[in-house]
Amino acid sequence: MKHQSVLIAVGCLTLAACGDGVGQTRVDMLVDRFDVPECLDTEFQRSQGESTEDGHRVLREYVADAECMNALESSLKSMDFEELRPRTFEAQRDGGWTETVVIGRWFDNTRTNIRWEEINP
Question: Which of 18, 20, 56, 91 is 20 to 30 A from 46 (CA-CA)?
Fold first, then answer.
């Protein structure tokens, strides 16, 4: 049997560009998963999913303000995420599921890029 993968990508420049609910739903996922209401004004950038014989990978990317960035960092530290290097957090779950969150501060520390990846075998 041949190896086959499927790649799905969705992107928006702003929440308004996503139409009714698509971007906000993905922001709500971030807020709910990490219990960070400070991130409600976060801008959803894109989402990408890939399925292969080996499992499924989902990547979500956001741009957030300093308040969200600080709240997310604190939340990850209080959860079962390990800080692998500065602002890169990872958690290993049952069955080999992995969650990784990378917080990339902008040079002026007023904004940040958030990259949230889940890999589920």
Answer: 91
Q: Indicate the fold that domain 6-120 takes in CATH.
A: Alpha-Beta Plaits (3.30.70)
Burial class (CB in 10 A: 0-12, 13-18, 19+), 99: buried
Strands (E), the chain: 6-11, 43-52, 55-65, 82-85, 88-92, 98-105, 111-120
Tokens of 80: 């079962």
Query: pLDDT digits over 15-59, tens only?
Result: 344 444 556 788 999 999 999 999 999 999 999 999 977 789 999
Residue ranges of domains in the chain:
6-120
Among left, alpha and beta (phi > 0; psi -120 to 50; other), residue 76 is alpha
Q: What is the pTM of this model?
A: 0.79
Residue 15: burial class (beta carbons within 10 Å; 0-12, 13-18, 19+): middle
DSSP 17: G
